[in-house]
Design brief:
It catalyses: 2-formamido-N(1)-(5-O-phospho-beta-D-ribosyl)acetamidine + ATP = 5-amino-1-(5-phospho-beta-D-ribosyl)imidazole + ADP + phosphate + H(+). This protein has 394 residues and is of the alpha+beta class. It is built from 11 helices and 13 strands. The chain has a 7-stranded mixed β-sheet with strand order 2-13-10-12-8-11-9. A 6-stranded mixed β-sheet has the order 1-6-5-7-4-3.
Length: 394
């Protein structure tokens, strides 16, 4: 998300505020980079200005300190990935079962699948554009899409909304978006907490986090264990940037000299402002993917969030398997082309930061691939499983 913040499954909301209001339930592209590590990311910003190509690291997020080409690096921006990696190593010693998109908890004949996330610095653009309802959808999407990768159906969602001074009208817009997101996911908003923390946030700003729980029968859980060489990767289209990479997005926007109200360049003749393109809510894949799963052939699922293709796809593979990605096999959205051109961002950096127009990847058997692509249209055959490690772009 954010880049999905450090420790995707372990982070928790900020400490309980002095004043809190409890809400009741509401109804209503050519490189081969190694990967396979647990996902680590930090959401922050950088004030450094450089003329060479931008990277996500320059925006304050270090996904991999070893990946440096020309231009800026994450480390130059003041973010030390080694510290984050060390923290993950220590926590994995305490909780060695952590590492998937969602946490599985056995309960009778089912697994309960848990996920928590936020929206990250995309919120900064919400404050600038005044678009607040779509970030509620983003909040739900980031957690329910993670739950979905286990084949689980989301059941319930709770949220945490924190601000220095509560603006009821603004908060209502955000929560309306959360309710909308829950409807799209087929679950319910079952409550949450609104924290009023004077002096903690800038005036008119707020932060969000959310938690979702879903369930899947134990004999139907999707865990990637049956993935073999030759299986096919199918990509489902995204709506845009979704909720990841916005520290870099904001740096590119600053460098472009354009405003959020300007028209997005190179947008195939469509009249869409930069703000509208960037604030497009994250696609919620639940209903579509559960329907695909019900017909068989799906062996693994990867939600393309922080870390992009390069870090997320290998997370679902058994040891010794990797992915070959056919660049040019899907439609890269104009917003990504604009970001890359203005920021002079390397191809490898783009593929490791953004979803590039594909928000969910399905690993399916050869026999099921054609049927799934036809029925899920639009869907793209974006690659295949190979021997080796990591993701290779051809």
């Amino acid at each position: 998300m954010t880049a999905d913040r450090i420790l995707h499954l372990l982070r928790s909301p900020v400490a309980s505020p002095a004043a809190a209001h409890r809400r009741g339930p509401l109804r209503p592209q050519r490189v081969g980079l190694p990967s396979g590590k647990r996902h680590v990311a930090v959401a922050c910003s950088s004030s450094t200005e450089e003329e060479d190509g931008m990277t996500y690291k320059d925006a304050g997020v270090d996904i991999d300190a070893d990946t440096e080409e020309d231009g800026m690096t994450y480390k130059d921006a003041g973010v030390d990935i080694d510290a984050g990696t060390e923290l993950v190593r220590r926590i994995r010693k305490m909780a060695p079962w952590i590492g998937g998109f969602g946490g599985l908890l056995a309960h009778k004949d089912d697994y309960l699948v848990l996920s928590t996330d936020g929206v990250g610095t995309k919120l900064k653009l919400a404050f600038e554009t005044g678009i607040h309802d779509t970030v509620g959808i983003d909040l739900v999407a980031m957690s329910v899409n993670d739950i979905l990768t286990s084949g689980a159906k989301p059941l319930a969602f709770t949220d945490y909304y924190a601000t220095s001074k509560l603006d009821v009208d603004l908060a209502e817009k955000v929560i309306n978006g959360i309710v909308d997101g829950c409807k799209q996911a087929g679950c319910r908003l079952e409550g949450g907490e609104t924290a009023e923390m004077p002096g903690f946030y800038a005036e008119g700003e707020y932060d969000l986090s959310g938690f979702a729980v879903g369930a899947v029968e134990k004999d139907k859980v999707i865990d990637g264990k049956n993935i073999v060489e030759g299986d096919i990767l199918i990509g489902l289209p995204s709506s845009g940037v979704h909720s990841n990479g916005f520290s870099l997005v904001r740096r590119v926007l600053d460098k472009s000299g354009l405003s959020l109200s300007d028209q997005l360049p190179g947008n195939d003749g469509k009249t869409t402002t930069i703000g509208e393109a960037l604030m497009a809510p994250t696609t919620i894949y639940v209903k579509q993917v559960l329907e695909i799963i019900s017909k068989g052939g799906v062996k693994g699922l990867a939600h393309i969030t922080g870390g992009g293709f390069t870090d997320n796809i290998p997370r679902v593979f058994p040891k010794g398997l990797g992915a070959k990605i056919f660049t040019g096999s899907w439609k890269v959205l104009p917003v990504f082309n604009w970001l890359q051109q203005v920021g002079k961002i390397e191809d490898s950096e783009m593929m490791r930061t953004f979803n590039m127009g594909v928000g969910m990847v399905l690993v399916v058997s050869k026999e099921a691939a054609d049927r799934i692509i036809e029925e899920a249209s639009p869907a793209y055959r974006i690659g295949e499983v190979i021997q080796g490690n990591g993701v290779h772009y051809v």
